[in-house]
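Researcher: Sequence recovery benchmark, item below. Answer with residues only.
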């Protein structure tokens, strides 16, 4: 309507612009116009100091910005396959205009849930600090606490000449770990990631979807996904004459075969 403007839309637009402004000194940002927005507000590329005159581009990620008043984001129906098909890591930015600050949230827990859960029908993401090891137990409707923010900073950091290096040192490893999990979660494998706000993350134990499946279920799919990787690995071993590596892997496979044979033996009921 002429001469009118929705207060909620105006507030959201201002929050989004301010959030991107806070990130711009440390990144290259391609903002998605409102007319093209289907869930991603910007594509963000990290910048690393190369020398006194140049930056070099690092990894990129999708960014969705929310105001401080938003505590959850829900995905259901058509949003689920869209979310699962994203080919870049997704992060959330919580913008606090009153305190001139932004909190960046990783989606490591989201990848963990997707990797071990089949036939997801609904996902609710909660922006809280309840970063405990969650047992999703193959729940098709998951409520995920995505942990404390990976980074929390105010606009005053724009005047801190050392914060540029700090920003990259913290965010770059998070994006790289998310990228790796994005690749491997296709066949139900991810690494758990632990972190504290404004500190470098750590990669910990791995988790797979095998515990959430019936024995043998999905094996053909995993076997097909593995085939190109195995072909390249085998070719490199043969061309590089990596006989010791081949021997080690064959030994591992033989041990796995022996374990299967032992587990397959009929149990003595006497």
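Model:
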């Amino acid at each position: 309507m002429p001469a009118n403007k929705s207060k909620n839309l105006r507030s959201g637009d201002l929050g989004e612009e301010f959030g991107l402004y806070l990130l711009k000194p440390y990144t290259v940002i391609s903002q998605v116009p409102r007319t093209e927005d289907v869930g991603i507000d910007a594509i963000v590329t990290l910048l690393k100091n190369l020398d006194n005159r140049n930056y070099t581009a690092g990894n990129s990620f999708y960014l969705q910005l929310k105001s401080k008043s938003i505590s959850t984001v829900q995905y259901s129906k058509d949003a689920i396959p869209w979310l699962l098909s994203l080919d870049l890591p997704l992060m959330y930015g919580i913008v606090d205009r009153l305190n001139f600050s932004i909190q960046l949230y990783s989606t490591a827990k989201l990848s963990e849930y997707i990797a071990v859960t089949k036939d997801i029908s609904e996902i609710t993401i909660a922006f809280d600090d309840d970063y405990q090891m969650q047992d999703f137990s193959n729940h098709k409707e998951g409520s995920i606490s995505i942990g404390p923010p990976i980074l929390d900073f105010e606009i005053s950091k724009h005047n801190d000449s050392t914060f540029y290096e700090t920003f990259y040192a913290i965010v770059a490893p998070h994006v790289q770990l998310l990228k790796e999990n994005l690749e491997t979660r296709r066949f139900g494998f991810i690494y758990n990631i632990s972190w504290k706000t404004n500190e470098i993350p750590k990669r910990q134990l791995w988790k797979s979807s095998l515990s959430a499946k019936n024995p043998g279920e999905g094996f053909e799919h995993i076997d097909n996904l593995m085939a190109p990787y195995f072909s390249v690995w085998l070719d490199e071993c043969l061309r590089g004459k990596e006989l010791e590596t081949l021997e080690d892997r064959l030994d591992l496979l033989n041990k796995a075969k022996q374990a299967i044979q032992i587990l397959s033996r009929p149990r003595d009921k006497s």
